[in-house]
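--- STAGE predict ---
source: upstream dedup step, 1 unique chain passed
mode: sequence only
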Amino acid sequence: MIRCAVSAARIVIALTLLPAATVAVNAQPPTWALVGPPLFSIDENSRVIFHMVSDRGVILDSGLAVVANGGSSQLVYLSERGEIVHLVGGRGGGPGEFDRLHRIFSDGRRVFATDFGPPRISIFTADGELASYVLAGDVHTDRIVGVLADGRFVMASEPRRPPRMGSRGPGVAAMPIRIVSADGTKVTAIAEPPRASSWSTRLSTRGPGPDLGGACLPEQNVAVLGSTSFVAEGHELVAIGVDGSRRAIHRATNPPRVTRAMRDGLAGLRVAMDSTRPAAEQIGGVGDPLPSAWMQIVPDPTGRLWLRVAECFRHPDPRVWEIIDTSGTLVARVEIPRSSRLIAVRGDRALIVRSDSLGVEHVESFRVGRN
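--- STAGE serialize ---
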């Protein structure tokens, strides 16, 4: 820095050397994609018609993929070549049946299936046999979001009356996270929201803003790997231990720019970001960056998390997923066509549900690699 001092007798020019500012330069992560033709693709000509496939599938340690087919309330076990190995369940209220099959989880060896009707968790072996079932939680609010390494369940509770879009206050609600024993008898709160308004574990009931691609449920923003629960709190990824300890491990980066159409379209709405100001004040001028946010987490059992970037702030196609390891490092970004939904991933293998032009669902498996 150069400073100039002027006196009546002389002009003094002083040169002061300041320490160089430290600037963190983050290299852009590589962009990955679904590589080549699918490993398998199951269409409407198979002996199973896929309809209302759950947003959460699993890939077991054995390599079998399991899909929750909501239309038939069945679990479909698929080999690595796409062969249907087991069909489990069906609509009903008996053991191994489902009033309305919802989501499935796994510890690598077993499949834990949840019902939208009774608060029941049915546990199946890798061979498709019913091992046991557990009654746990409240049918109206509680959702199983993962299985810990020791076999206990992680449960999240949705608000009974989510805030209305356009009402005063942010469109978010506190979501308790609890651990339930394997037999469903003991419940331990690890993220119980206190009365203070500064509680930070608040998940949007409709995504991080007016999600143009459909509603985002809070349960989609929680994933479990090993003994840790990972929560996407708007723009921040937080790790919560079984003892309730919390640490932020990653914050969303690389925000997109506001277009004039986006600004005009959101000007009359209040969006669930970081304040309660009207959207027009939050967004600012055309070209200003919007904070990036996530609206879904899919865990990879090999130790990574796939987080889907909220598409109302992104280009309409393709859908963008960010891969983050458990230390918080952004590993890669993956682009998946909008016609496809990612439901499970394990290593370099991804399981997706693709909808064709007629709305028919096809279950497909791909390798994931550099674009």
